[in-house]
Amino acid sequence: MERVAPLPSRRDVLRGGYALALTAVAGTSLAGCAKGAGDGVGADGRVTIELWHGQTDTAKDALARLVADFERAHPGIRVDMGGGVLADAMLQKITASLASGSYPDIAYIFGSDLANVARSPQVVDLTSMVESGPTPWNDFWAPARAAVTINGQVRAAPAVLDSLAVVCNKKVFRDAGVPLPQAGWKWPEFIETAKKLTDAGSGRFGTGWPGAADEDTVWRMWPLIWDLGGDVVAKDGRGIGFADTGAQALQVVEALAKDASVYIDPKPGSEQMYQVFLGGRMGMVVTGPWQLPDIVDAKIDYEVVPLPSFSGRPMTISGPDTWTMFDNGETRVRAARTFLTWLMQPAQDVRWDVEAGSMPLSRPTQQLPAWKKQEADAPGLPVFVKSLETARVRPTHPAYPQISQALGQAVVAVLLGKSTPAEALRECADAANAALLIPR
């Protein structure tokens, strides 16, 4: 089997912490920023735009190759990739740069941070860009469009797309004499399967769950809540939309904990949980396509199945990240629009997906031979892509970081047996509802 192209580390999903810590800063510093200095036109007549890409290693190299090709095709524009910070620290860097009046033309912003960043008047509205011209906007997967749309306006371009499914270690299932799950299975079956796969004597767990109360802990809960009819924020916007369904969803976590069938990873990033799975001591893990390269490298005989549900209907979550554009004057905005428009075309999108690690933004990209080959080389990858047909995204709401923190604490309290689902959800609702009532 060929080596699967690396997909983004799930470090890139741990986005609740920075957003929460800096929400207050963003609220005071983004409102009245001066326009960035300089029109970017050099002595040679080329326009230079600054890209804070946030990437490391493979993804950075892949983007550099794309930038080089763009510059050859657009000799009047130069893309400077030299500034910025890694994605984990990008919100803090952008907040400070907007306050100082010196900011990039494009930055890689986590999807859950976009609502707070987009409060700045320096964030460029991209609605007209994606609704006209060559961008296949209507063919983009719904999660990719939803993640960058705030109050009907497109405030960024989608950058990285993913989804959640269940990866099963087939050897662990065989050793335990448990049949592999099938599409359409239910959460009670997940609980029972995890219990049957667990063997305390050999240190084997049925499944795992992040236990750091971070966004990685939380975003696995939303598919359960949505499937039960709940939502992150109530329709009136004045409170959470999961006061009842949240407690029901937490009962799944409670059952796994009571059966001692779940490995609880106390550290941010879930690396310990994944190491247990890669070491053959976990039967199934809820994860995304970013984990497939490590699973292949570990020579795990695996199968990918869709997330279970309560209703029998397909349900999962996608957590897209964004390329957010900032206003440094008409000339640089025009050049930055040209670059992002080019980058989102299927011919470039498929290269980014395969070389850096993402799923295709649009159906036209999905149909390209390069992506078809990627799917053939990575068993289970089509399951993640198909799940995008019914995936939902977290709301682009400025109070989301506080809601996430409150729910994360509730999940951990239940996982550790310190609280019942009902008690934990009440405390979660008190904190999250208070955050929703803060004027923004």
Any low-confidence stretches, pLDDT <50, length ≥5? 1-36
What structural class do the secondary elements suggest?
Answer: alpha/beta
Number of folding domains?
A: 2
Task: Please state the second-level CATH architecture of the largest domain.
Answer: 3-Layer(aba) Sandwich
Major sheet attributes? 5 strands, mixed
Helix content: 40-55%
Question: Explain this structure to me?
Answer:
- This is Extracellular solute-binding protein.
- The chain has two domains: 10-162 and 320-386, 3-Layer(aba) Sandwich (D-Maltodextrin-Binding Protein, domain 2); 165-317 and 399-436, Periplasmic binding protein-like II (D-Maltodextrin-Binding Protein, domain 2, 3-Layer(aba) Sandwich).
- The longest helix has 17 residues, at 57-73.
- A five-stranded mixed sheet has the order 2-1-3-14-6. The protein has a three-stranded antiparallel sheet with strand order 12-7-13. A two-stranded antiparallel sheet has the order 4-5.
- The radius of gyration is 22 Å and the shape is globular.
- Helix 1 (16-29) runs parallel beside helix 3 (90-100).
- The protein has 20 helices and 14 strands.
- Helices cover 43% and strands 12% of the residues.
